[in-house]
Amino acid sequence: MKKSNLLTVILAFVTTFFLVACANKSSDKQSTSSTNAPSVAKARTLDDIKKSGEISIGVFSDKKPFGYVDENGDYQGYDVYYGNRLAKDLGVKVKYVPVEAASRVEFLTSAKVDVILANFTVTDERKEQVDFAHPYMKVSLGVVSPEGKVITDAEQLNGKKLIVAKGTTAETYFSENFPEVELIKFDQYSDAYSALLDGRGDAFSTDNTEVLAWAIENKGFEVGITSLGNVDTIAPAVQKGNTELLDYINKHIEGLVAENFFHKNYEETLHPVYGDQAKPDEIVVEGGKLD
Predict the structure, then answer these.
(1) Can you tell me the distance from the alpha carbon of 233 to that of 145, in angstroms, rounded to the nearest whole number?
(2) Which option is the CATH number for 46-136+235-282: 3.40.50.920, 3.40.190.10, 3.10.150.10, 3.40.50.11540?
(3) Structural domain boundaries of the chain?
(4) How many CB atoms are located within 10 Å of the residue 88 CB?
(5) Which SUPFAM superfamilies did the record assign (predicted)?
(6) What is the 3-state secondary structure (H, E, C) of 179-226?
(7) Is the peptide bond between 65 and the residue preceding it cis, with omega within 30 degrees of 0?
(8) Per-residue tens of pLDDT for the chain, all 291 residues
(9) How far apart are CA 114 and CA 130, in angstroms?
(10) Are the CB atoms for 204 and 152 separated by under 8 Å?
(11) How far apart are CA 158 and CA 151, in angstroms?
């Protein structure tokens, strides 16, 4: 073979190898990018929900008295009480789907549920991921601990173990403000409370409304910190951009103010637990407007 022809063959081979390598690299990059990209399924519209005859609502199954399953297997609680009314006024049946604190956003982005009514605290970070409707409750953080070793100040937790639920405002608050506190994290609230009962942590922090209710039912524990951090709001959430459903829920909450609906909700679901240890106006938000 002549030297010129041999050179031509070598150049052709090198060029082909280079092009194939670049193509494979580009393909791998696209594949990796696709794998890492968040999956967002299309949310159902208001008409889709009405035509199906059913609305799916994500709620807690173990967070009494806000969302829990009773001895008969039925969903109960403050969040559920509103979910029942929302479905009734839409003219559809309701399907409750159990969620955990850390999975609430994902259940909306993946369209596993239409609405989240799971004691969902409104935060700036979450607003970037979901759309919140008008609030129906006020809340701040509380800390419950064993009697005799009651935590009355957050500083007392430095160097100690604090139990929290993953994906909650309590986890965020202590991570940002008290890095010396060792956080023991659980997916489910029932597991978190079991850890407190077993002595695997020095205290447990979550919404003050919940720890107060739990301490009333579980003797030997006390809420030493009744209000920590900012006073936040609890609101329904829908998939980001689902404005039709969002607008309906906002108008629905506004329309319930005439019958003082959420105060009635409080009397039915929360007052039997709190008794005189809490005041409705410190918790309830009517018509989506804070006082």
Answers:
(1) 24
(2) 3.40.190.10
(3) 46-136+235-282, 140-231
(4) 11
(5) Periplasmic binding protein-like II
(6) CCCEEEEECCHHHHHHHHHCCCCCEEEEEHHHHHHHHHHCCCEEEEEE
(7) yes
(8) 444 454 454 445 445 444 444 444 444 444 443 344 455 789 999 999 999 999 999 999 999 999 999 999 999 999 999 999 999 999 999 999 999 999 999 999 999 999 999 999 999 999 999 999 999 999 999 999 999 999 999 999 999 999 999 999 999 999 999 999 999 999 999 999 999 999 999 999 999 988 988 998 899 999 999 889 888 999 999 999 999 999 999 999 999 999 999 999 999 999 999 888 788 988 999 999 986
(9) 12
(10) no
(11) 11
Strands 54-59, 93-98: pairing is parallel
Residues in the chain, total: 291
Q: 81, 79, 82, 94: which is closest to 49 by C-alpha?
A: 94
This prediction's pTM: 0.76
274 Cβ partners below 8 Å, 6+ apart? 212, 213, 216
**Residue (of 120, 134, 128) closest to 241 by Cα position:** 128
CATH class of the 140-231 domain in this structure: alpha beta
Tokens 């850890």 locate to 195
Task: Let me know: does 212 contact 278? Beta carbons within 8 Å.
Answer: yes
Beta-strand pair 137-146/161-165: unpaired
Residue at 273: amino acid letter: V
